[in-house]
Amino acid sequence: MEHALIEGYKNFLENGKTERECAAAIIAQAREHGWRDITEVDSLGPGDKVYVQKMNKAVALFALGTSDMAQGMNILGAHIDSPRLDVKQNPLYERDFVVYMNTHYYGGIKKYQWVTLPLAIHGVVCKTDGTTVPVCIGEKSDDPVFVISDILPHLAQKQLKETAADFISGESLDLIVGSENPPRRGQNSEDAENQNDKSEKDKAKKALLSLLKDAYGIEEADFGSAELEIVPAGAPRDCGLDRSLILAYGQDDRSCAYASFRALLESQVGSRTSCCLCVDKEEIGSVGATGMGSHFFENAVAEVIARLECGYSDLALRRCLANSSMLSSDVNAAFDPQNGDLYDRENASFLGGGIVFNKYTGSRGKSGASDANPEFIAKLRGLLDKSGVIYQMAELGKVDQGGGGTIAYLAAKYGMNVIDAGVPVLSMHAPWELTSKEDMLQAFNAYKAFLTLE
Predict the structure, then answer these.
(1) Is the dihedral of CA 192, 197, 202, 205 positive or negative?
(2) Beta strands, E only, 150-210
């Protein structure tokens, strides 16, 4: 089981580097296990399995139990977006025979980590004729890759005196996507005449646009309705001589999303309805139509209730949400031995220590936290102890050091019990993050156990 889970997870990461790709993979696997699009069904009852998707970037899976939904659900909630670079709407420009693609970074990144790495372009281009063109360049062995250049050490005296937050600016994170040979210098008049075409303005950019048109049917104006994301190129790899770790892009929070939806797919329907919620935009505050801050989730639950024999009522929806329990399946910062002074060691999570429970996240004075009830935590502890799940209780660094947040507080507004529970990650938000295979296994086991909670 462990080998299959880990290899499945690595495959999910390799083929799901954007929220669209993740949502598509989740839906495909759900359909293989008997889930149907809710738009395909008119009525629902115990044992039925349906999903609701929003804009191809958020998905809610439901397995209906035998109890009245007004008694609540067991919900596993994760996000499937990750820090990255987004391509701007007017991106292509040529400067001194080098063609660049202009970007805007997404989420909390250290900008200097994104230079001189092989990068890939993933996403879609939506055209005015109604067609959507998928784009994925840089992942196949014979694909070209892209890069953001940096200053050589010999010329970097000024740069090296600046702070880490400033020496790479957001506007300088532009992708090199092509080049053109400049005209030769010191040539005679005959050579100059032969090289006149080399001095044509933006010749390299025009050549790239011609390549894009031939390969994808894309015009330059089509970038205005494109959603293209720049991500590290390459597949996840086992890390360490003992292969105990996984090195990959996007493990915050796709590690928890994968463990959550696989736990649901491999669980039996019980008395309470089970739900796996995978949303977008968490890295920028859970905003937008596909984020947890939207009405997507409650609208999805309303659609399910409307298809039950009892029919829809606002009171039934409110009772269902208020009586639900949720694990906000999100990662935690793993203790870093090289920077141990940033952590309260007795309240830190460790790689290989099992799934992490955070009673609260937030920053400094718990700002932005939902702070789970101890009665709920005690119930979870008893369930996990009985199930033999290895877990740890932790915070995200020292009190005044910083902090973070998840979607937990947005679920708590409905009045449900909710606590953060996820995989510890080293080098979180870096282009390549580290997790432990043991923690992935324990997270999966914990999520499966949670779905049986009465």
Answers:
(1) negative
(2) 175-179
Summarize pLDDT for 177-209 with one digit per residue, the tens. Answer: 999 999 887 766 555 555 555 457 889 999 999
User: What is the distance of C-alpha 452 from the center of its chain?
Assistant: 27
pTM for this one?
A: 0.95
Would you state the pLDDT for residue 146?
A: 98
CB 448 within 8 A of CB 266: yes
Q: At what angle do helices 437-450 and 251-265 cross, to 10 degrees?
A: 50
Q: Which pLDDT belongs to residue 404?
A: 78
Residue whose pair of structure tokens reads 């309470």 in the numeric block: 272
Q: What pLDDT does residue 197 have?
A: 52
Which among 263, 264, 270, 261 is positioned nearest to 453, based on CA atoms?
Answer: 270
**Beta bridge pairs of residue 61:** 51, 276
Q: Is 352 left (phi over 0), alpha (psi -120 to 50) or beta?
A: left
Radius of gyration of the chain from Cα atoms?
24
The list of the chain residues with pLDDT below 70 reads 1, 187-199
Whether the CA torsion 435, 439, 440, 441 is positive or negative: it is positive
In 3D space, the residue among 4, 22, 27, 2 whose CA is nearest the CA of residue 12 turns out to be 22
Going by C-beta distance under 8 Å and a sequence separation of 6 or more, which residues neighbour residue 281?
A: 79, 81, 287, 288, 290, 291, 292, 293
Specify the pLDDT at position 199: 54
What does residue 33 show for φ and ψ, rounded to 5 degrees? Answer: -100, 15
Beta strands 332-333 and 424-425 are parallel
Residue 426 β-bridge partners: 434
Residue 42 near residue 253, CB atoms below 8 Å: no
Residue with tokens 């797919």: 265
